[in-house]
Amino acid sequence: MKPHIHLKVSFVLFLVGLLVGVYFAIQIKAVPTRVTNPFLPYTSLKEASQSLAQEIKELRKEIVDLHSEINQAEAAIKASEKISKSLIYELEQAKSQAGLTALSGPGVEVILDDAPLANSSEKVITAADIRDVVNLLWLAGAEAIAVGEERLVATSSIDAVSDVIFVNDIRLMPPFRIKAIGNPSKLHGYLVNPNYLKDLHHRVESYQLTFKVEEQKNLIVPAYSGVLKSQFVKVEQ
Amino acid sequence: MKILKSLFPLRISALFFCSALLGFLAILHYRSLQSAINYREQGEILALIVSREVAESAELRKQVAALEETRNKLKEAVSSSSDVETTIKETIREYQIFSGMNKVSGPGVVITIKRQLATSELVDLINVLRGLGAEAISINGERIAIRTPLDGAYFGDQLKIEAIGSPTVLGEGLKKKGGILEQINKDGEVATIETAKTLTLMPVRTSQFYLGKPREL
Lengths: 237, 217
Prior knowledge:
The complex is a heterodimer of chains A (237) and B (217). With 237 residues, chain A is α+β, with helices and mostly antiparallel strands. In chain A, 49% of the residues lie in helices and 20% in strands. A five-stranded antiparallel β-sheet of chain A has the order 3-2-7-1-8, with helices on one face. Chain A has a three-stranded antiparallel β-sheet with strand order 4-5-6, covered by helices on one side. Chain A is elongated, with a radius of gyration of 29 Å. Chain B is of the alpha+beta class and 217 residues long. Chain B is 57% helix and 16% strand. Chain B has helices at 2-7, 10-79, 84-99, 119-131, 152-155, 167-175, 180-184; strands spanning 104-113, 136-139, 142-143, 159-164, 191-201, 213-214. Strand 9 (234-235) of chain A pairs antiparallel with strand 1 of chain B.
């Protein structure tokens, strides 16, 4: 090899070697001084979430048990004939109206689900979709509604954190089942009317989201499993 | 071998190898950065979920305490003869607050909006108020119970929304950056919010069930 060619090759190799060296230097400098693995905080959060989910599950069970004890105590009061039948009726009505009693009757079941390839926000069922369906069901005369097993009451909200939907602060996963008691054909008619839920109907057609409405002769809407306790409201006599 | 050497002289091979190595490392570096970004984003979402679960757990603990109190009162009422009627009447009143069947009063906020809201905006706004713990809501003097359907056109272009609850929580929650009030005001300042020491809300007109029957257990 001629000396000047050898020099050129050496120079090119020197440059490439220099670049590799610089690359390694950048890599070493880019390593954070404290958390070396980005997966670690994610893992601890995931663990915290799992433990909180378990705690919430146990607290919910405790609430169900307490409701059962309260029902037994109420039954004992009724049986003891210490109060009038009209007061018992009023109590049952008030509980029922507030959503604290499971109801059965005719109605519809709505099933909402994401598109098969849900890779954009338009292809997933959002909290806003569920809110719109619920509002339309009230408009169509629904008497009681549950999303999943969560009965909607005066304090219920339907929210989302990123793509996770919460109803009554309970995390729900698709497919979302909405049960509503009311006139089945009227409820069904409102839901499939293209003048309502325009955005949802459009997305169902364009992206194959699931939106099924089934009329049912008898369905059960569960009681609200939480507690209704006022903190700021006073009843005016 | 000679043919190979003539086709790929040593220096070219060395150069090719170094370049390939550099390319490989550069892609590796890019992928590791992307992966870190993805985990950071997912971590932020998970942090929001965890904070929500923490709040939920605290709320459930409060609910357990309240239920224990009710259970104890009822059990005492069963064994004594005097307090039964009072306890039951208190319980009925408490339930009726949430079905909107009573005239109620309390502190809260008043939201004034000077344009017609789309039904979806109204649904979102009432949903936010409920999420922030509003215990009673009315729009233009009409009590909004859970079964009240919301229709933007029905309430017109002058809305006065009153909500009873914690004035601080309701006020700050509504004014939150990127929140519902900011969305309503995106095309001009049409919505304002004021706190109120006492609001009085009328009961709903009707909340009877016609088709739903208490489930036989």
